[in-house]
Amino acid sequence: MTVPEVSIDPAAFHADPYPILAQIQETSPVTYVRQIDAYLITRRDDVAEWERKTHILSSDQPGGLMTVLMGQNMMRKDGAAHQAERRAIFPTISPKTVREHWATQFKTATHTVLRRIAPHGKCDLVADYAMPVSAEALKLITGLVDMPWQRMDAVSQAMIDGCANYADDPAVTTRCHTATAEIDHHITITKNPDPLSLLGVQHAAELSPEQISANIKLAISGGQNEPRDAIAGAAYAVLQHPETRSALGAGALDWSQIFEEYCRWMAPIGMSPRRVIQETAIHGLTLPKEARAFLMFGAANRDPRVFKDPATFNPWRDCRQAVTFGAGPHFCAGAAISRELIAKIALPMLFDHLPRLRLNGPTKFQGWAFRGPDCVDVTWA
Ligand code: HEM
Fold first, then answer.
1. Counting CB atoms within 10 angstroms of each CB, which of 16, 30, 68, 120 has the fewest?
2. For 141-160, what is the mean pLDDT?
3. Of ligand 1's atoms, which has the minimum distance to the CA of residue 230?
4. Considering the domain 5-379 in this protein, what is its CATH number?
């Protein structure tokens, strides 16, 4: 059977993809979207099932923007090659290392950021809190501790823009190349990295300089905006829902529930691309060989077959079916790091240190491949 085709308004989709995604999810399990030239897989159970079929939906995209601009990293490999690099970084990302090695350092860095903003009485949580907290954590995790946090955020953004530069804007490409060169410079000058950092463990595993550089760039591109958007976005959601704040105060709700529900409701990564390496059919709908298939994590997290009233922020719901971090061999390598940094440290420390925190202006969410708040203006004066 032929996959149904729809046309979308790219600006409306960027502003709020959910009404369009809900409509196409209801109409068909797979939909071809002309403006992004891709087959969208939108239902939760299909995303979970097909992400595992790497022999049909491959992460290896030789001509893909990420591979061309940042080198072939583990997220763009399948099978044994992928697993070998996953094993090499496990000492950095394991729940044990997160608890015993990174957590205290994350707390110290977060405390420094809080001490910096507290005297001002107001700020934008995205730029003034979430961005430095995420960037400081990423400096520790990668081992690039001499890179200023503002540069860590800037190179991350330049690479993300480069990977989404389907319009082929030369200025975007140049900025991305400058960013990757800056990262390579820091990899070269960092002589004694923390042995548990990504730089330290990949050296210990004797990965090649190309593999080490590509995976550090991947962690920076995938490990800055997502925690930033989740920290500021979840804080916004709590400030928007006073009943959740009092339940947190009363111990009837915890920050992990807030974090998991926020990421279900507003998935920081809304999509991940795959290459169809052999013609295949999903529910009888044919995807041609070499086509682009998008696993739509954002739509899957709002699948009414799995989540009741999915457009509502409800931290009391069971989020175990959410695919916020993916659902297959490429399950997020930073999941344990994110859960500790965001739910155990950044959110509780913010609300404990600034008990009079309240919203101080409107917030708009944007994006469909990556989604988060443009700003979250708050005051505690
Ligand atoms: C709220 C925060 C985060 C979210 C929602 C998130 C989400 C995701 C998702 C959906 C994937 C799977 C992509 C796919 O299947 O193609 C992924 C992969 C990955 N993430 Fe995250 N991520 C977050 C934070 C982080 C952090 C902090 C780091 C690094 C320190 C990180 C590093 C990675 C890496 C290296 C991969 C590729 C794993 C592989 O291919 O084996 N992520 N992430």
1. 120
2. 97
3. 1
4. 1.10.630.10
Cβ proximity of 113 and 345 under 8 Å: no
Provide the 8-state DSSP code for 326: -
Distance 302 CA to ligand 1 centre (A): 19
Would you kindly state where each structural domain of the chain is located, as residue ranges?
A: 5-379
Q: Residue 184 and residue 213: Cα distance in Å, rounded? A: 7
Ligand 1 binding pocket includes 74 (Cβ within 6 Å):
yes
* Beta strands 272-276; 292-295: pairing state: antiparallel
Per-residue DSSP letter, 370: B
- Burial label, 341 (beta-carbon count in 10 A; 0-12, 13-18, 19+): buried
Q: Is the pLDDT of residue 101 over 80?
A: yes
- The answer on pLDDT for 166 being more than 80 is no
Taking the C-alpha atoms of residue 362 and residue 375, their distance in angstroms, rounded to an integer, is 8
CB of 332 closer than 6 angstroms to any ligand 1 atom: yes
Distance CA 313, CA 267 (A): 12
Please state the atom number of ligand 1 nearest to the C-alpha of residue 59: 16
State the DSSP code for 4.
P
- What is the reported pLDDT for 167? 78
Q: State the distance between the two ends of the chain, measured CA to CA, in whole angstroms.
A: 61
Cα(265)–Cα(218) distance, integer angstroms: 25
Q: Is the CB of 141 under 6 A from ligand 1?
A: yes
CA–centroid distance, residue 252 to ligand 1 (Å): 30
CA distance 320 to 356: 32
Give the nearest ligand 1 atom to 342 CA: 1
From the CB of residue 335, how many other CB atoms can be counted at a distance below 10 Å?
Answer: 15
> What is the C-alpha to C-alpha distance for residues 255 and 211, in angstroms, rounded to an integer?
36
